Amino acid sequence: GRLVIASHNPGKVREIAELLAPFGAQVVSAGELMLPEPEETGQTFVENAELKARAAALATGLPALADDSGLAVAALGGDPGIYSARWAGPARDFSYAMKRIEKGLEGQYNRDAHFVCALSLAWPDGHVESFEGFVHGKLVWPPRGNQGFGYDPMFLPNGHSETFGEMEPAAKHAISHRAAAFRLLVDSCFRL
Ligand code: ITT
């Protein structure tokens, strides 16, 4: 059946479509449907993902999959976290957002960070299921690579020599926070 990808972020929509591809789902994005972007008033990734998924399912009468994600930097007390998109300003300039993080890390030895991804699947009747995935790594400077999106060029996953910005999509999907959350979602669907 048809599934709405409840995101206006083209990088996310592409990755979610790639993760869904093997399942042959017919997908349409919130952008294509010109759905409004709900205000992200939640205090957690899951709350924001659920609010976005519910709004899209309600507006379309179709099941909707939303993603709320972000980068948590240890030495910054977990910032930018749920504010990861907002740190890039209204122009969504991630080279600026990455500089802002690097500035915050001046004089710090601890360069640990992790990505979080909450995926929520909502149905038009209001039912919603959520799953969370993580990937741990270190922040590098200067940023490397132009694959992926957002903070990928400065994120070096632990145990790897390429940043997410340097990895091919398949390599990122093998270890990413989004793929981890997606696997939990798929597992739970097959248990239903
Ligand atoms: P939607 O709400 O429309 O989905 P958004 O960009 O506003 O789009 P978020 O509020 O969840 O979504 O912001 C998450 C930000 O965290 C996102 O803009 C990226 O910059 C960053 N981010 C999330 N996943 C990432 C990934 O895999 N690689 C790099 N950056 C990522």
Structural features, described:
It contains five helices and six strands, in the order E-H-E-H-E-H-E-E-E-H-H. Helix 4 crosses helix 5. The protein has a single domain, classed as Maf protein (Alpha-Beta Complex). Helices cover 31% and strands 23% of the residues. The protein is globular. The two termini are 17 Å apart. The longest helix is centred in the first third of the chain and has 16 residues. It has a six-stranded mixed beta sheet with strand order 2-1-3-4-5-6. The chain has 192 residues and is α/β, with parallel strands linked by helices. It binds inosine 5'-triphosphate. The site of inosine 5'-triphosphate has 24 residues, from strand 3. Its EC number is 3.6.1.66. This is dITP/XTP pyrophosphatase.
Integer tally of domains? 1
Report the order of strands and helices.
Answer: EHEHEHEEEHH
Q: What oligomeric state best describes the polypeptide chains here?
A: single chain
Uncertain segments are: none
CATH topology: Maf protein
Which CATH class is shown? Answer: Alpha Beta
In DSSP terms, counting alpha (H) and pi (I) runs of 4 or more, how many helices?
5
The set of bound ligands, ions and cofactors reads:
inosine 5'-triphosphate
Q: How would a crystallographer describe the biggest sheet?
A: 6 strands, mixed
Q: How much of the polypeptide forms β-strand, as a percent range?
A: 15-25%
Number of strands: 6
Rg for CA atoms: 16 Å
Share of helix, binned: 25-40%
Features:
alpha/beta, 192 residues, binds inosine 5'-triphosphate
How are the elements arranged and paired?
Layout: E1 2-5, H1 10-20, E2 26-29, H2 45-60, E3 64-73, H3 94-104, E4 112-122, E5 128-139, E6 155-157, H4 169-175, H5 177-191
Parallel strand pairs: 1-2, 1-3
Antiparallel strand pairs: 3-4, 4-5, 5-6
This protein binds inosine 5'-triphosphate (ITT).
